[in-house]
Design brief:
heterodimer, A: alpha/beta, five-stranded parallel sheet, two-stranded parallel sheet, 7 helices, 7 strands, globular, B: mainly alpha, elongated
């Protein structure tokens, strides 16, 4: 009974406003959802125009009505042709586009799990510039500083992931690399 | 040297209307009255006057001692109080007279900084005197007396504001001095707040009025500090930004209705629009609301929720807190399928 009451209260709140969006739980369990299911899930929330924290895990968005069972993500993404056109994923774009349509215009901390093949395309990451991002934590190895700059030119904190590639490290440390982020503290 | 003494004597004679060169038992009350009269007539005191004061000061320590003694001419106050008060006249005349005395004030405060904290028989410092005695609806925003003290002596003025009641000699209501600096109609060109803020403590900015509103609450209140046109909102936002950047924790101050400055703005806007027959649905957010919301969002999540939506039922826990705890385990599967 207590449990029901709590859930009931929670529902009431969720129809008000959310200041964070943590989708980590979606990556557990079935592991794969359709776009329709994702939208249905997000539709339950009303978001503030500024979100404190958005955490997007590695999601496998399957085409509608063909929800796939949990298999190896790389293999699945090759099958899900509507989601992964060409090389690179685009799921994150779906979520962030949705947030934009819901009126979100600033995300203080964005964390995206993108450390498995295939990662998101750089063009997809660069298209994030419609949001004002303060902390940019995109877990993709050797992300180009130019892409980061396009995505979050006013970032105050950037988390980088390196494979140790010397060329990338040099490009990061170049004058037109990370030096362009004047607001980084 | 001889020339200087001659000049000093000449000026002294002008001031005192006296033929005597040396008078160890100077009537200080009369002296002060004449000093201020001199300034009223001649504007700022020239070098001659200051030389004369310096010579008198060196030659007769009693003059210096007398300067911070209560004067009969200005009952229960120092010369500083006397300069600010003067005879009761129209506010424009009072301001004019005060402006002519700027140089004398500067000299006095630089020579005798302790005068700034001295109180008169009504227990007012000269700053309180300036703040309270010349409160007039004709004065837009910060009155020129306070503005003078803040511009010329920001550190000393802030020191007056920062003193708590326990320290003694505190300014009675610092918030009433701060309000016009933040919320006054002349916020555009007024740099008083900027001059004062580096010296003001967080405790001072957390001072409240009778409804426990801080100066930030009042600045954030809808239609209180600006007419809510985009331009005035932008100006006011800069003032608010100044306040919050100086002491970020003031964003967490709650008034008697447990409203944060952000919530106070949202609620007061809602109240205003409802009372004036406006449509809440078409009311758009503005730069001030957005700025305050952004600052709330930078607090830890539980605190941010309290600041944005107010404290809800339960022992310090809102529904938001409950949702944070439970939604990840129970609701997600339900919504998905």
């Amino acid at each position: 009974m207590l449990f029901l009451s709590v859930v009931s209260n929670t529902r009431i709140f969720i129809l008000e406003h959310q200041i964070t969006l943590n989708l980590q739980e979606l990556s557990r369990g079935r592991g794969t959802i359709t776009k329709r299911q994702l939208i249905k899930f997000l539709d339950r929330f009303h978001f503030e125009s500024i979100l404190q924290f958005v955490d997007i895990p590695r999601l496998i968005l399957a085409p509608d009505k063909t929800a796939l069972t949990a298999e190896k993500p790389a293999k699945l993404s090759r099958k899900g042709t509507s989601i992964t056109s060409g090389i690179g994923r685009e799921e994150c774009l779906e979520i962030l586009k949705y947030l934009q349509e819901k009126g979100v215009r600033k995300i203080i901390e964005l964390v995206v799990d993108d450390d498995q093949d295939p990662p998101h395309k750089d063009t997809i990451i660069a298209s994030l510039n419609t949001f004002d991002l303060e902390i940019f934590d995109w877990k993709k190895l050797d992300l180009c500083s130019d892409t980061i700059f396009k995505a979050a030119p006013y970032a105050q904190k950037i988390v980088l992931y390196s494979s140790g590639n010397n060329a990338v490290l040099r490009s990061w440390s170049a004058a037109d690399g990370l030096g362009r982020f004047t607001r980084v503290r | 040297m001889k020339l200087v003494q001659k000049t000093s004597a000449k000026v002294k004679n002008v001031l005192l209307d006296s033929e005597e060169d040396e008078d160890p038992e100077l009537d200080t009350t009369e002296l002060h009255r004449k000093i201020t009269r001199y300034c009223d007539l001649h504007g700022k005191p020239g070098h001659e006057f200051l030389d004369w004061i310096d010579n008198i000061d060196r030659g007769n320590p009693k003059i210096k001692q007398s300067l911070d003694k209560p004067l009969d001419a200005y009952p229960g106050g120092t010369l500083l109080h006397g300069i600010v008060r003067g005879p009761h006249q129209k506010i424009e005349q009072v301001i004019g007279r005060f402006q002519r005395r700027y140089e004398l004030l500067r000299w006095l405060l630089e020579s005798y900084p302790e005068l700034y904290a001295e109180r008169d028989h009504e227990d007012h410092t000269v700053l309180e005197e300036a703040m309270l005695k010349f409160h007039s609806p004709k004065l837009n925003g910060v009155n020129p007396f306070v503005e003078y003290f803040v511009r010329e002596f920001p550190a000393e003025t802030a020191q007056q504001l920062n003193r708590t009641e326990d320290d003694g000699n505190s300014l009675k209501a610092p918030i009433f001095l701060l309000i016009p600096m933040v919320c006054g109609p002349d916020i555009e060109g007024n740099g008083c707040l900027g001059a004062l803020l580096p010296y003001v403590t967080e405790t001072t900015l957390r001072q409240t009025d009778e409804n426990r509103n801080t100066v930030l609450h009042l600045a954030a209140r809808y239609k209180y500090a600006c007419d809510e046109t985009p331009d005035s909102q932008e100006l006011l936002k800069r003032q608010i930004e100044n306040l919050v950047n100086t002491h970020p924790d003031i964003i967490c101050a709650l008034n008697k209705d447990k409203e944060s400055p952000y919530l106070h703005r949202v609620n007061s806007a809602r109240e205003y629009i409802t009372q004036n027959g406006g449509d809440l649905l078409t009311h758009k957010s503005d730069v001030i609301t957005d700025f305050l919301k952004d600052r709330c969002m930078h607090r830890p999540i539980e605190e941010a929720v309290d600041l944005l939506y107010g404290r809800r039922s339960g022992p310090g826990k809102s529904l938001t807190h409950l949702s944070c705890c439970f939604c990840r385990w129970f609701l997600i599967p339900e919504y998905l399928f």
